Amino acid sequence: MSDSYANKFENSDGVNTANNPYLEEVDTSRRQLIGSSLAAVAVLTGVTGSGAALAAKELLSKTKGELLGFTAVPVSNSDEVVVPPEYDAQVLFRWGDPVGAKLGSPVFKADASNTWQEQALQAGMHHDGMEYFPLSQSGNRGLLAINHEYTDDGLLHADGMKNWSAIKVRKAQEAHGVSVIEVERKADGWKVLQNSKYARRITANTMMAITGPAAAHKQMQTSYDPSGTRVLGTLNNCAAGQTPWGTYLTCEENWNGYFSTSAKPTPQELRYGMRNKGWGYQWHDFDTRFDSVVEPNEAHRFGWIVEIDPKDPNQMPVKRTALGRFKHEGATCTVSKEGHAVVYMGDDEKFEYIYKFVSSDKVKSGGFAANKNILDSGKLYTGRFDAQGVGQWIELTQGMNGLTADKGFAVQADVLIQSRAAADAVGATKMDRPEWIAVHPNTREVFVTLTNNNLRGQAGRSSSEQPDDANPRSDNQMGHILRWQEDGNDAAATTFRWTHFVLAGDPAMAKTEHQGTVKGDIFSCPDGLRFAPNGLLWIQTDISTSVMNQGIYKAFGNNMMLVADPVTSQIKRFLTGPSGCELTGISFTPDQRTVFVNIQHPGETASERSDPDKPLAISRWPEGAKAGRPRSATLAIRRKDGGVVGT
Ligand code: FEO
Ligand code: CA
Ligand code: CA
Ligand code: CA
Q: What is the dihedral of CA 311, 315, 316, 318, to 10 degrees?
């Protein structure tokens, strides 16, 4: 790597105000921003009145300019959750914990012998994205909607994948999807309310509607649904979003892994990484929906954003096709200057794109009832991150920007079902695995985690896969966080200015490509990303279990969560997770005194399927050996003095 390369990026940590004068504005009016952000959140969540105002007042009096006042925790290799000594982390909701009171709330069996019918009434596996929906003024009672991304079938069944059967496939399907639980904070901590009328499991077999421009299209029709408007279930639900009208958006990420193609996949199947025999879930052995030779269109019905009303357990979840089909990581909502809904979305794969949806209609007051179809019509864009910190949103609308019938885009459904091909055609910027996107509550600046991409700049890669200004490192094994501001500070704008917030990695590392620009505690492979209402940025890491604690990743230990001050770019380590896990699912109560976090796949090994004969080989979290198997779980984390978290 050349010296000029190093010089070019030595200031690219978010403090280079020559690129982004708006950062100065943030600094000078910081106190005011902190106060008004709480008011803004109060409006969005419907929690108004003294609670939010009091929290704002307390935050201002407690912070005194020092926002990261907690004691940083060191890098860890131990099989436990470590938080600062001023904090408590409570395990709230684990894989297998009952959801609701049906059939007597079946309890988890430590040897994984629960039936599929019981699993359908229990927390799924591998908690991921999550949102908190307050039900009270204080925020001490609310709903958590929690994604269950995928299964480790070595842990899910008593004898793992031995004697594979239709029953085991069914249990795996019931361990996917979403849980909605009601939680309340009592004197002795947060509790799940078992008899809640809201409690609900949504699985890979829950009936859903398909709406928007791709609904009913020929390619959406299957033998069991000739209408192309109904589909069973949602899969690989990764990150999530909360709409301003109070619904939950869950995102279908690596859905391709569940389908088996013929020995020779079609170009469209290959573009989404589909292959013969899939990724080893083996559902196609017993459920022909997942055999693309039998049902070639079923895969078109996955890869969407799904809207769920957490307050209506009878609502049929809706797949919103206007938001495109790819490996959806997240769906971060905001509102444009004129009041249109804006959803930012990443497609998490090496060299994939960032997308933005802007609704045709304006957001109305009146909750979901008043905004039932708002996500069905609007414009989908993909991002071009050009040199020198400027960028453009390119519209993915049939008939525009070369998306014409002779290129395979005869109608908008073609553009949406093959969103990746449409984004290829318009020349979007290939990014280093876009994961979560977060919008600053006041400045409206947008931040995205680009988790890593070791293929960038490798021999044989095309010119668009070489280092560029936005993705500056070849062999990018550490990842980075990029930030942008929409022009006119309007989320509906079609141009923006971007810069880097931080290049992850230890600045002291030997190889230039791995040296980060981190000011504070080191980390690698940023994934989860969320602003608290007070403007602190929470970062979660996902170093893959295939490389965790090895080679260049040794310095980082287990996956972790950090807090950043976007004004100073200071970053401080807040939590380290148990062995083999990743950190995900950040959500705050409106008073910011509790942060909910998910520990996903403790005990995962490089193979991603545990040995059922040695379930404790890597981790005994959360209960130790007596419980039998490690379990993904939701944590509720609070300061011992009840103060605002992260300050
Ligand atoms: Fe499910 Fe890209 O993380
Ligand atoms: Ca992720
Ligand atoms: Ca993951
Ligand atoms: Ca990840």
A: -50
CB 291 near ligand 1, within 6 Å: no
Looking from the CA of residue 238, the nearest atom of ligand 1 is 1
Q: Is 349 in the pocket of ligand 1 (CB under 6 A)?
A: no
CA of 47 from ligand 1 middle (Å) equals 31
Which residue type occupies 215?
A
In 504-569, beta strands by DSSP E: 519-520, 526-531, 537-541, 560-564
Q: Report the C-alpha gap between 594 and 644 in whole angstroms.
A: 8
pLDDT of res. 627: 75
Task: Name the closest-CA residue to atom 2, ligand 1.
Answer: 348
Strand partners, 564: 537, 571
d(Cα 40, Cα 139) in Å, to the nearest integer? Answer: 15
- 55, pLDDT greater than 90: no
Residue 399 lies in a domain: yes
Does residue 26 surpass a pLDDT of 70?
no
371 in a structural domain: yes
Structural domain harbouring 486: 3-253+303-639
Centre of ligand 1 from the C-alpha of residue 584, in Å: 9
The per-residue pLDDT of the chain, averaged, comes to 91
- Chain position carrying tokens 């931080």: 502
Q: Rounded to whole angstroms, how far apart are CA atoms 101 and 121?
A: 9
- Distance from residue 435's CA to the centre of ligand 1 (Å): 7
Tell which atom from ligand 1 comes closest to the C-alpha of 239.
1
pLDDT band at 11 (very low <50, low <70, confident <90, very high): very low
Tens digits of per-residue pLDDT, 171-209?
Answer: 999 999 999 999 999 999 999 999 999 999 999 999 999
Note the pLDDT tens digit of each residue in 420-458: 999 999 999 999 999 999 999 999 999 999 999 999 999
Domain count, the chain: 1
In a domain, 99, yes or no: yes
C-alpha 414 to ligand 1 mean position (Å): 25
CATH of the domain at 40: 2.120.10.30
State pTM to two decimals. Answer: 0.91
In a domain, 100, yes or no: yes
Is the pLDDT score of 59 beyond 60?
Answer: no
Q: Record the tokens describing residue 635, joined without a space.
A: 């944590």
Work out which ligand 1 atom sits closest to the CA atom of 433.
2
The mean pLDDT value for 34-38 works out to 36
pLDDT digits (tens, 9 = 90+) for 261-301: 999 999 999 999 999 999 999 999 999 999 999 999 999 99
The Å distance, Cα 253 to ligand 1 centre, comes to 7
